[in-house]
Design a protein that fits this description.
alpha/beta; Rossmann fold; 6-stranded mixed beta sheet; 3-stranded antiparallel beta sheet; 9 strands; globular; binds adenosine-5'-triphosphate; binds magnesium ion
């Protein structure tokens, strides 16, 4: 099958103040199952997602997106001071899509939010807000969905719900690129992995090769539960 690129990164570099946050990241992300950006806290996952979404400008290098509309779910989503229903309706409206009662019904249903449709979004629990945030992103009918640590503050049951949703959205053909520092989550949902250490892409591999035959010493150390840095020294 011909590989279809979704994102092409070429020497993507991001410098903020004195700090090099992304170090010449070169990679092609293809259509298919979820791509997971994996790496320790502060390695640049959020910055790379934002660069791919166009929310931050690179200092040098390029990022090209080859598909249509993209949606981005922040690690700590901000709910509008409106009902759950209106949060969804507003997201569609800002994407320039027509209002559709049947789309709204399906979204509320798919995300188990029907009983909360008229509740103020800001009163929802963390797990409910995260589901609404993903539903809101999907209301825009994106071809590409960025999820930044979508389960970082959720318990096991809510994490499982969100991971199931991710699998269903992906099966519908929406390309998902998500960040996590959770190895178990990467293993459960990744089709392929981009492993970042201190802003450098240490490894890109299909999920099974990453977990069973990692080539970089940093990836092997991370998989073994050790602390990692780009020069291989313990930080
Ligand atoms: N606006 C900024 N100005 C200066 N430094 C920044 C800025 N944004 C991020 N950084 C730094 O860039 C590095 C990468 O941050 P980023 O948030 O991309 O990492 P991350 O992998 O998402 O981390 P986490 O797992 O904690 O979410 C961090 O050291 C951070 O302090
Ligand atoms: Mg982050």
């Amino acid at each position: 099958m011909q590989a279809e690129p979704v994102i092409t990164l070429s020497k993507a570099r991001l410098v903020m103040g004195q700090r090099m946050i992304l170090r010449d990241v070169t990679a092609v992300i293809e259509r298919g199952g979820p791509t997971v950006l994996l790496g320790p806290n502060g390695c640049g996952k959020t910055s790379l997602l934002k660069a791919m979404m166009g929310l931050v400008s690179l200092t040098s290098g390029t990022v090209d997106r080859h598909v249509g509309r993209a949606s981005f779910v922040l690690q700590k989503p901000v709910m509008l001071r409106r009902s759950v229903y209106d949060n969804l309706a507003f997201a569609r409206q800002t994407a320039g899509l027509p209002h559709s009662e049947s789309v709204m019904t399906d979204l509320l249903n798919d995300f188990s939010l029907t009983h909360l449709a008229h509740a103020p979004a800001r009163r929802l629990s963390g797990g409910e807000q995260q589901r609404l945030a993903i539903a809101r992103a999907l209301a825009r009918e994106p071809a590409l969905l960025f999820l930044d640590e979508p389960t970082a503050s959720l318990d096991v049951a809510q994490t499982r719900l969100v991971e199931d949703l991710i699998a269903r959205i992906s099966a519908r053909g929406v390309k998902i690129i998500l960040s996590t520092h959770d190895l178990g989550q990467a293993k459960r949902i990744a089709d392929d992995v981009l492993f970042l250490v201190e802003g450098q892409l240490a490894e890109q591999a299909p999920m099974a090769s990453f977990f069973h035959a990692a080539r970089s010493s940093q990836a092997r150390a991370f998989l073994a539960g050790e602390l990692v840095s780009i020069d291989g020294e313990k930080p």
